[in-house]
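#structure-requests
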Amino acid sequence: MRATDIPNNMQPLNNRQGDALQWFALRITYSREMALKEHLDAQGIRCFIPMHYDYIRRGEHAVRRLVPVVHNLIFIYSTREVLDVIKKEQEYRLPMRYIMNLETHQPIIVPIRQMESFIAVAGTYDEQLVYLSPADVTLRKGMRVRITGGPFEGVEGVLMRIKNDRRVVVSIEGVMAVATHFIHPSLVVPVAE
């Protein structure tokens, strides 16, 4: 899926009052992110869990399964009011909490364009993707770029050298980051910040 394939009218069914929809980063306890996703999908609320393929041992066999990259993490596209209601209703079955910005003490809200780029990269399940902690990204400097071709066309991020390759890193500040596979220099253009 390319960033340009994501619809601009990301309006889930939960926008009844006309409130502003935003991407929130939440933690859910005891690795119940898939149960929460199922609950949100049933209500028509858009959400995203970064996933990747991993081998799980089943006796003598290894089975390849799609599993969350980071357990207990989910991104939800909704209003704060709707999320507060869901949190209250599911308080015992699916306990969740906002990931907070340590400086402002407010829930982290991911800009829509940044989340589109993140989903376009992390949603491919490419085995060459590299997931990074926020600390790994803040220690490095790079140029802000947009990818102009290939499977990640339209994605915006920071061009960095990771594992001896030039990759575009899309970072959700304070939560996580994902780096594409090698991107040839002819496929990126600088973006003004």
